[in-house]
Every structure is written in structure tokens, then in C-alpha cells.
Specification:
alpha/beta; Rossmann fold; six-stranded parallel sheet; 3 domains; 13 strands; 348 residues; seven-stranded mixed sheet; elongated
Length: 348
């Protein structure tokens, strides 16, 4: 009764008889006041200090994967993570070289991070070395063949506090699409970065598929930017098409691939929708924004307590995009059977 009197005094009611004709009415009022007071006390006990703030370091090589970062942050927002409130991102942009990548990782590791998001093979391998003696989990996105690249031993049980998204396996199908769009194709020009595990894996996949399709892959190796630009400036006269494989240096020079292909009136099989929008004939492969959102879902699981190594590696969805304006400019007509299966068609 003393507590009730204190609550009444708090609300400005100094005296009241509990034996009046309105006894039950006042009991209801007092009960509501009591509940309201308890709610206020509970709310007062929750402060900004009690909200867990997660710190995520993001490590990327080459600006071509910026859409993955954008998609990731967008996905995290959809899962309730608000930058500056319950999540902080340590990301100062993509590194342009392996040396710069080392520096950016060191900057991240100088902070108290909860998780690392790594984009492509080199950042992931580097991050694995850095967290080897820690409990910091890694989510990668994307890697074509994480087993072949030595990132994990198993797709179903990656272990070692790491999981992520694989985006490989689409190149053989992309070669099939090229043959459907231009049935006369015999020789395909393929610049490959000799130091890139992803590019080497892509080459092996394409060579196997080409043999089955009766095509020849004209492999042209390069080791740096100057050599790549020289290859694009001197495309052999006897090739029928150009293909791009997933590699940070190749993707960062997508505009040069598009320009060279269109100037030589050759079909360009590219990687993503943004390249088709910029003038490539077609693309078949993962969409980077979608991959970023997919990575956000994995990160959400890890932050909520699921060990990263217990989450199976996921596969990205692949999309077919076609630019019919480019087709017309290089003298091609894309078959209706292809257009009917395209996810996006750029007509003008």
C-alpha cells in the first residue's frame, strides 16, 4: 500500500480513500499507473551504451567491386544495421595494388574489429593470414572457386571461421551463349592475368568447354596494366570474339575492352550488367550488388552467433544481359531465342 501511495503522490494525488463508492474505479487507475511506472523504469534502464555496436572491416582490391560494397551496406540496412548506430564500417576504398592492400589491412587490424568482409581472392588470402591467431571471422564475396584458390577445403563445411559466396562456373555457359548469338564463332580472344588465380581458373574452365563446343581459346597473357592495354590495341585479325574473365585488373579496364571490341566489330562477352549498359554486347554472370546483399545475410548470421565456418559456401545467381544496340552497330542480330531468356535487354 505504501508503494501505491508513493505512486499516487508522484502523479499528484495526495490523498484518496480506498473505501469510497468508487473503490473499484480507483483500483483500476492505480493499477494502470503502476504498469506505466514499471514501463518507464524499464525504458530508463536501456541506454545507448547497452546497444551492441559491431565493427566490420572491408578489404577490396580494385574499384570494380565497389558495387558489392554498396549492395552489402544496403543489405545490412535491410537487416537492421544502421551505420553509426549499431554498426561501423572500416573502409577507405579499394586498394589499387597488393602493396596498398597490405597497408589497408593493417589499418583495419589496428582497430577492434568483429568481422572482415573480403572481396576477391588476394584480400581473402591476406586476411586469413592476419586473423590466424584471432577469433575474427571472415565473409568473402565473391570468389569463383574458393576450394581451387586454397581459401577453403570444402564448400559444405568451410571451417576456420570463414564462409562466403562463390561466383564461378558461369564461364562455360557464357561461351554457349556467345555461340548462340554468333554461331559462326570459331576463335575467341581471351586476355588473362598470369598472376591471378581467378583468371587462371577461368582459362582452364573455358578451354575445357571450348573443346566440347569445337571452339579455340586464343589465350593472351599479360602481367601488368601496360601489357593488357597493348593486347587490346593489337587484337589478332583472325579472332571472332573477345571474352573477359573475372580479374580485378581486367574488370577495372572494362571500358577499354568495350572500346576495343566495338572498334573491331567483335562481340564482347563481359561479366556484369553495368558493362552491357556501357556498350558490351552481352554478359552472363553474377550481379555485384546482388552479391553484396547476399553477403549481408551471411554476415547477419555470423553477428547473431552462428560460427562462420559452419555456414556452407553459397553460390551467386547468374544473369543474362544483352545490348541489341551494340549488336546492330557491329552487324549482328541477336536471335529471339536468346532475347526471350535475357534478364535485361538494352535497346537504346
Amino acid at each position: 500500500m505504501a508503494i501505491i501511495k508513493e505512486i499516487l503522490i508522484t502523479f499528484g494525488i495526495k490523498e484518496i480513500s480506498m473505501h469510497t463508492a468508487h473503490h473499484n474505479h480507483y483500483r483500476k487507475i492505480i493499477f494502470c499507473m503502476l504498469i506505466f511506472s514499471l514501463m518507464l523504469a524499464a525504458c530508463a534502464g536501456v541506454t545507448a551504451e547497452d546497444t551492441e555496436v559491431h565493427t566490420i572491416g572491408i578489404l577490396a582490391l580494385g574499384p570494380s567491386l565497389e558495387p558489392v560494397v554498396a549492395g552489402f551496406k544496403e543489405g545490412m540496412t535491410e537487416y537492421g544495421y544502421v551505420a553509426g548506430e549499431n554498426v561501423n564500417y572500416l573502409y577507405s576504398g579499394a586498394a589499387n595494388s597488393n602493396q596498398e592492400l597490405d597497408g589497408k589491412l593493417q589499418e583495419i587490424m589496428n582497430n577492434d574489429v568483429d568481422l572482415l568482409l573480403t572481396l576477391s581472392i588476394p584480400p581473402t588470402l591476406l586476411a586469413q593470414q592476419a586473423v590466424a591467431d584471432t577469433d575474427i571471422p571472415i565473409v568473402f564475396a565473391p570468389i569463383n572457386d574458393p576450394v581451387g584458390a586454397g581459401v577453403v577445403d570444402s564448400l559444405t563445411n568451410p571451417g576456420s571461421m570463414i564462409t562466403g559466396i562463390r561466383a564461378g562456373g558461369f564461364l562455360p555457359k557464357e561461351l554457349e551463349w556467345l555461340l548462340q548469338i554468333q554461331p559462326s564463332t570459331k576463335r575467341v580472344f581471351l586476355p588473362t592475368n598470369s598472376s591471378s588465380p581467378g583468371a587462371v581458373q577461368g582459362l582452364l574452365q573455358l578451354q575445357g568447354a571450348a573443346e566440347q563446343l569445337g571452339l579455340e581459346i586464343v589465350n593472351a597473357e599479360f602481367a601488368n596494366e601496360d601489357e593488357l592495354l597493348d593486347l587490346l590495341a593489337n587484337i589478332p585479325d583472325d579472332v571472332d570474339a573477345i571474352m573477359m574473365v573475372t580479374d580485378s585488373l581486367i574488370l577495372s579496364h572494362a571500358a577499354d575492352f568495350i572500346k576495343a571490341a566495338n572498334e573491331n566489330r567483335l562481340p564482347l562477352a563481359s561479366i556484369s550488367l553495368s558493362q552491357v549498359e556501357a556498350g558490351a554486347l552481352f554478359s552472363y554472370g553474377p550481379e555485384f550488388v546482388a552479391i553484396g546483399k547476399q553477403a549481408a545475410r551471411l554476415v547477419d548470421q555470423v553477428l547473431k552467433g552462428t560460427p562462420a565456418g559452419d555456414i556452407p559456401i553459397e553460390t551467386a545467381e547468374f544473369f543474362l544481359n544483352v545490348n541489341t544496340k551494340t549488336a546492330a552497330s557491329i552487324g549482328l542480330q541477336v536471335p529471339d531465342a536468346v532475347l526471350e531468356q535475357a534478364n535485361v535487354i538494352i535497346r537504346d
